[in-house]
Amino acid sequence: MTENTKTSNIPEKKEPLPGSIEETLLFRKIQHQFPRQFRKVFPDKLAAKSVVIIPSITLDQEILAKVSGHVHYEERLLCLLMLLRMPRTHVVYVTSMPIDPVIIDYYLHLLPGITRHHATQRLTLLSCYDASARSLTQKILERPRLIERIKKCIPPGNIAHMACFNVTPLERTLSVKLEIPVYGCDPELFEQGNKSNSRKLFKDCGLTVAPGFEDLKNEDEIVNALTELKLNDPSLKKAVVKMNDGFSGEGNGIFSYEGMEEVTEWKTWITQHISTRLKIVAPDLSYHEFMYKFQAMGGVVEAFVEGDIKRSPSVQCRISPLGDCKVVSTHDQEVGGESGQVFLGATFPANEEYAIEIGEYGLKIAQALQAKGVLGRFAADFISVKEENGWKHYAIEINLRKGGTTHPYILLQFLTDGDYDYENGMFLTANRQTRFYYCSDNLKNEKYKGITPPDLIDIAMLHQLHYDGTSQEGVMFHLIGALSQYGKLGVVCIGSTPERARNFYEQTVKVLDGEC
């Protein structure tokens, strides 16, 4: 019997069809093993483990395409290269396009207590060599040979899991093909974090929400909701229309009631003017495209929260495979764009006047989500208005995924071996010193275009724009790959006081503007 004949007698392993019941059941079986692995491996820094990082932003591709340089947002999870500080941990990092070695070197230089050579031996970088606008996970699934290479990069005996930006049916399919669990929310539970279900959960938790309506399906229902809001509060000036699965404000529109003062038939007026009075946040997304997507996703309408002194805090939490709920961080988000709907950056921790309260709300939300079976990181956003007797917090939305405040905090935590104490609203390093940071994903200037990664590193070294491990302060860059083409990059500025953190940022902007 020949070698070929022997091989042909071995039945091929049949994989379940994507989205099938068989795949879902197999995924749940793989996930069911995760708590035991987590209990055994995660507390042990010397355990042999592998983390497969899939930084795919698997969100609505048409809306995502409106975000300049979005393919480079895959670099945001390079913060997880800090896992290599554990000497027996292997990392496999997959991207759409190869990452410049200068950028990888920049991150490895930050590793505390590990030589670059030792870390490099445990790091595998893989690429699809595909710069198209489709999600990274979709590209990986189209390349079975790449999937086999990922599997071969996991050393025998290593316990492995996937770390993703968010988890959709595509990531579920990849998990089944790789036969490793995902540290993230089951796609079947993803709708628990959409705009409609967020409002319902907030109300169940006893939190305040802006007046509004959930589970809307089309333009007629939006018009009815806008009319009802105005009838309930004739002084209302604006309302927000949100797609259930929009992100970073890009699925939102702001409706203005201006011009209704002399009108008696409010519903008729809104019907006639909605196409011109609804300002879409996402650039280049037309009214008809917005409504088409809203009809596909569903969404909410709620009153625009007004206030002379207004903030946008958020709380980030993590639900472990063992069911433990932890408040990871609080931030004050910096927002811009149409009526302040687009995330630009954040200050950590949130304002001391309400950081503890926001943390307590986050824990309530985490416990409610955990009861529904949710796993992994999520963030909850608020709008806070200062009143005579303190701050009033309106819970706005839940994001069942990593976000713009995830990677800055992970960098701070790994670099200082510290942790956030939500009961005191403070971050303490391993030697019990407080640290603060200011971060942004949108440090942007047309003049920055043409600055390559080596150029940026050269500028940073010349002007001492780097993180100092001795003082545990300084500047770290991310989204470096987006700089040359799009003139934008991200930055995390760590200081011993909020003022020092902000000064690092202002110094960074001054240097970059001067060099350009």
User: Taking Cα atoms only, what radius of gyration do you get, to the nearest Å?
Assistant: 24 Å
What is the residue-averaged pLDDT?
92
Number of helices: 18
Termini separation: 71 Å
Please give the share of residues in helix: 25-40%
User: Which stretches are low in confidence, meaning pLDDT under 50 for 5 or more residues running?
Assistant: 1-8
Strand content: 25-35%
What is the number of domains?
4
**What's the main sheet like?**
10 strands, antiparallel
Would you count the extended β strands for me? 21
Task: Label the structural class.
Answer: alpha+beta
Shape: globular
What does this structure look like?
- By secondary structure, this protein is an alpha+beta fold.
- The protein has helices at residues 3-8, 21-32, 34-41, 61-64, 101-109, 116-120, 136-141, 144-152, 169-178, 195-204, 219-232, 266-277, 287-297, 355-371, 406-416, 453-462, 483-486, 498-515, and strands spanning 49-54, 89-95, 123-127, 159-164, 212-216, 238-243, 252-256, 278-280, 299-303, 310-311, 313-319, 325-336, 342-348, 376-387, 390-399, 419-421, 426-428, 436-444, 467-468, 473-478, 488-495.
- The protein folds into 4 domains: 15-183, no CATH class; 201-206 and 308-416, D-amino Acid Aminotransferase, Chain A, domain 1 (2-Layer Sandwich); 211-303, no CATH class; 435-516, TATA-Binding Protein.
- It has 18 helices and 21 strands.
- α2 packs across α9 and α11 packs across α12.
- The longest helix is centred in the C-terminal third of the chain and has 18 residues, at 498-515.
